[in-house]
Amino acid sequence: MLPDMKKTLIWLGFLLLYPLVLTAQPAAYTWHSPYSDQSWVAFSVAKTGLYEVGLSDLLAAGYDLSGADPASLRLFREGQEQPLHLVHDPGGSWEGFAFVGTPRDGHEEATLYFDPITGQPDSSGAPHPDMSLFGDTAVYFLTWGGSESGIRYATHTDTAYSQSPPVEALPVQVGLYPHPDSAGISFVRGGGSSFDPFYTNNPDYGPGEGYSFRNVDPGYSRTLTLATPYPTTGVARLDLRLFGRSNSSHHPRLQIAGQPGYLLDSLIQPAIPQVAMYTFSLPITTPLSQSQQALIFSSGLTVGLTDNIEISQVQLAYLRQPILNGAQLSLHAWQSAQPAHLQMTQVDGIDSIWAYDPLAQARYAGIITGDTAHLRLPAMTSPRPLHLFTDQAAQNPVIRSARLRPICHPDSGAQFVIIAPRALALSAEAYATYRDTNTVNPYASRVVFTDDIYDAFGYGQPGPQAIRRFVNCALDSWATTPEFVLLWGKGGYQPRTDPWPLVPTWGYPANDYALVSPLTTDSSRLRPRVPIGRLSITDDAEGLAYLAKVDAFEHGEWVPWRQRGLFLGGGATAGEQQAVSQTLLSLIDQFVQPPLQGQATYFQKGNPVLEPDSISLVAMLDSGQAVVVFLGQSTYNLTDVPLPLPSQLQNGTRTPLVFTFGNHSGDFSVASTQTLGERWISASGGGAIAYLGATASAYLSPMQAYSEGLFREMLQNQPGSRLGVAIRGHIHQYLDSLSGIQGQNHARLFHLQGDPALVIFPIPADPQAIPVWPGDTDNDSLVHVADLLPIGLAYGYQGPPRATVSTDWAPQYGPPWAGSFLDGTNLQHADANGDGLINALDTLALSLNYGLGDGSPPLSSGLPGAIPLYVIGPDSAQAADTITLSLWLGDATQMDSLYGIALILDLDTAQYRSGSLSLDLSQSWLGTGDPGFLTFSRYDSLEGKLYLAQSRTDHQALYGSGRLADISIAITDDLARRPYPKLQADIPFALARRASGTAVGMGGLLTRQDPPLAFALKAWPNPTRDFLNLDPHQPLLRLSLSDLSGRTVFEQKHIPAGPLRIDLRALPRGLYVLHVQGHTHWGSLRIQIE
């Protein structure tokens, strides 16, 4: 405090409310822009008082004004300059200043309110204009160093007190406001009810939206106590604001305890039951005799009914005895035709008192003698407020930095704008860096903090209007204009009580679209100027987890699960279920049609055939779904189809876009819990990449229209676009298609949680284009060894090239070719690199993308008339030897036409040395006479699997049999050094094709023709009909006979040396394999039963 401030500094200021008026000029968006080259500091005050600031106080806060010209000091509140009083030391040097501060009230934010029927601004809908929705703290901004002089108070002194008799009463006003920290307070969330079809789900600030004292039903009463110190016998007036919810009638009653009858006893019967504010100005003719008044509220309706009316604000104007009882007092509507003498007692002061006239910007000096103060005021013919302060009233404001940064300057532009509280700066800046620098979906990005926005566009006070002003300024002023806005933080419509660092919603139901809508006076035309999304998080860990998901999503493999969709239908009744089913089938039809050509799975509650179970849903979500769509009944955390929670899943980077068309499941403004959408988005290492749901209750019919229109916009009108662009486009189309306010409200009910710049469906603008995953030539969602065969079958074919010649594992779109394979797969899939010609260059995609995709491997062509495969090895081998295994196909008597073959050879890694395999395909019989012969091979040394495919290219099939490959491989060093151990070489998969594309039956898939038996095993007759004779010269450990499927049809163990006869009469005709195992040798023979 300044040394002599108690004696020398007393003043009054009345702060005019100044609504922000915006024009087309960029400078008009920010009230401080004309002084943007000057220095600023801010002061926060939360109650009415006299605030003093010394040069030493400023210096301690980091602001040295000792060299500033005091005449250049200018003080602003809500964009309007306020008067200052400069304080000088005895030597005449200025040492500080003082100002009168008042708390924030609700008058500026009353401009947020709209009439729900007309859609026009209606500030009368604000329930408590003298109390702010967002807090009590008001901010004053001080600047200096400019060429203009600031406003100062003129001081007047009139000591002719005896010329006027002392006034007998002082006009004052006291009030009751529904502060949320008081008992019995509720928050009117707006949005109407089913009784107000024009108001249902209205996201604007509507009548009564704010705080109130809870309603009183008939048969009950509520007493509110209002302090009225030192009342006189003069008249008084009670101003009352009541909020009536939808009702056919209201009957509020009010009486003052100790006074006869009702002060208010009014039956209200609106023509249309609707929400409305009711204002009463009630004269009190019975003198107030108590220092506090007990106001008793009740209802005159019949007991058992609900009145649905609440108290929003109470103000009592009365005449007070001239007793100050302290150091300050505010007078209400002071007026006097003659000069007046204010003589007040019980004054807390030393020797000085002042009265301040806000209209004349004048301060009137008085004196204090003992505990009595004397003030002489000039005549004031018009009513005005006056403030009285003694020399003991001064206090210090909170000094803080003024965040009046040039965030609306044209050079401040960015394409992608993140609006975040400073508490989440770490994760917000990290995400901006990612979006700015990633190579897949980059946008010039910038983080703008809410405290900067509030200072520059909200007069230092938090609220959604400031964000809306900033967004419009950026869109109209920045050289690089925003294309997307992402709100970084949990939402809230009660900033007075919400505990998290938040980005506020535009009222309730939670509405973000209004934050990016034009500055217009017509709420029915509010529509987003730019796509917007929100990440509803409360800490940096959740933000960084989402960043990791987006990074994996955008830079991961574009695997086929991104064309799959899971559709879940609910409904409480059979009628609802039928309507839901009709809508979902419509959505599915759009999803599976070109250009996306998605794959849909549909479950429907009430349909026994389609009833889902949680196990199958978890499995499908874990395997990956591009979209999950729910339509039905829901709450904040539940759906009437058991949609699993993210905590139940292990879907990893397979993160879907989730739509929940139901009630409340997309709300992000609930303080007590994480809603369904917030759980899906904030889940680390899984969950969803984006989520769209309703922030309040929704109705089935408008939800049906909304969901169908949204899918049409995403998949037909703007296929392949950014998610937020499609949503914004749909909102405009949806609003234009509906005339009813209820339907229009639904357009602003469904909000995106997640990044609006994401591309969910990688589809082109051309609706005829089909997606090709390079390397997946048979279009089975997996790059496999069999994918060489379609290249050979269509070798040399030509068609329209794709716009991008690429083998990147992502859907590459191009027009379909004129032709298909036998299974209907378009020939374009075999053009793996997209150059318009199917040739050997397309095999590169198999090598680059092998194993990618999430489909199932193809089946072997085990068909009647099967061709055997053999693996033939040496007669003997020792440890560390390098041996050659030959792969043979068929024989001359069993061969049909063959064009290509793909197989997997499974080698026992315990027997063969890892990495020692070499492959020789130069002698392949299948390549005879075909100079363009195609081969593909891949060896997995860890699993011991050799993937081998061969195909002709001349469209001429071969007949006969022969060698396919020679395989050199080394025996491991640690096998016992004995003659050739039992070496394993199985063929678990084989697929062969004719030149026509039909499959060739493959048999003997597990046949091994290893070294011939050292003992001369004889088997006769072969072919045979009834019996097979054997004559092993050595004892056998095991002898078995199997058919071509590998099924054992005969088995005998521990057989002594000597003749053996096997009865085959029970077996059908066909080719069988005889397996014989001795103590050191083993082998197999083909047996034909005729």
Task: Tell me the layout of helices and strands.
Blueprint: H1 5-8, E1 39-45, E2 49-54, H2 55-60, E3 74-77, E4 80-82, E5 85-88, E6 94-101, E7 138-144, E8 154-157, E9 170-176, E10 185-188, E11 210-213, E12 221-227, E13 236-244, E14 252-256, E15 264-265, E16 276-284, E17 292-299, E18 309-320, E19 323-326, E20 328-336, E21 340-347, E22 352-357, E23 362-369, E24 372-377, E25 380-390, E26 394-395, E27 398-401, E28 416-420, H3 425-437, E29 445-449, H4 450-457, H5 464-477, E30 484-488, E31 532-535, H6 540-555, E32 564-569, H7 574-592, E33 599-604, H8 614-623, E34 627-631, E35 657-661, H9 676-682, E36 690-694, H10 700-717, H11 723-737, H12 741-747, E37 750-753, E38 770-772, H13 788-793, E39 812-814, H14 844-849, E40 867-872, E41 882-889, E42 900-907, E43 918-920, E44 934-940, E45 945-951, E46 962-970, E47 985-993, E48 999-1000, E49 1002-1003, E50 1019-1020, E51 1027-1030, E52 1036-1042, E53 1048-1055, E54 1060-1063, E55 1070-1077, E56 1082-1089
Parallel strand pairs: 2-26, 8-23, 19-21, 28-29, 28-30, 30-31, 32-33, 32-34, 34-35, 35-36, 40-49
Antiparallel strand pairs: 1-7, 1-27, 2-6, 3-4, 3-7, 5-6, 9-18, 10-11, 12-17, 13-16, 13-18, 14-15, 14-17, 20-25, 21-24, 22-23, 22-25, 23-24, 36-37, 38-39, 40-41, 41-46, 42-45, 42-47, 43-46, 44-45, 47-48, 50-51, 51-54, 52-53, 52-55, 55-56
Helix pairs in contact: 3-6, 4-5, 7-10, 10-11
